[in-house]
Amino acid sequence: MSPIPDLEASALLVVDAQAGVAAGMPRADGVIAVIAGVVDRARLAGVPVVWLRRTDADLRVGEPGWQVVDALAPEPAEQLVDHAWDDAFADTDLAHVVSVVLEAGHCWIVGLGSDAGVLRTYLGAQHRGLAVTLVEDAHCAADVEFDGCRFSARQVAAFVNRLAWRDVSPGVTGDLVSSATIEFADDGLDDTELIARAEEETAAIEQALDDRPDGQS
């Protein structure tokens, strides 16, 4: 439940899924495939998708590295927000887009840069009073060396998951789920479930017709 009154809808934030970001991440291809599946399910459920694109000296607007990876394609009606800081809410209109334009009080987060844009935007959403859920297998990082310690990309992503999993501060609404357990449509069946139900009903009708005694119409 969102801590913001009357804003119970959700939005999916795709953080920095850009060609230049993916190039430095050994697990990017597999994670991008998971993100693509999450995006497809969000669209089927009517959950709006917001695409966040990092801009800096290496990710210049309009250049190939700044573009969203080819495997992910924003649709014309979907929101795109460029940001200069790891926290995509900082110095952008993202909070307005989520809370006012999309009327959402909850954000699902996936993307590239576990310890950068993903984590900072997760925390930024909470700081602005939004409920937030990190999808644990839909983000990744690069290998990191800091203070003489080396951390593999997998270790970095796992540690970010641990931070979200242990997020129990008073008044903070955060969560961690796997892509397989996402429930976008809590108030009813999403399109995928409706299609499956229709197929089951059609199959039952066809079976009943096949079971009729000969000569009956």
From TrEMBL:
What range(s) does the Isochorismatase-like domain occupy? 10-146
Segments crossing the lipid bilayer: none
Q: Which UniProt keywords apply?
A: Hydrolase
Output the InterPro entries linked to this UniProt entry.
Answer: Isochorismatase-like_dom (IPR000868), Isochorismatase-like_hydrls (IPR050272), Isochorismatase-like_sf (IPR036380)
Q: Which Pfam families match?
A: Isochorismatase
Name the PANTHER family for this protein: ISOCHORISMATASE-LIKE DOMAIN-CONTAINING PROTEIN, PEROXYUREIDOACRYLATE/UREIDOACRYLATE AMIDOHYDROLASE-RELATED
Q: What is this protein called?
A: Nicotinamidase-related amidase
State the organism named in the record: Brooklawnia cerclae
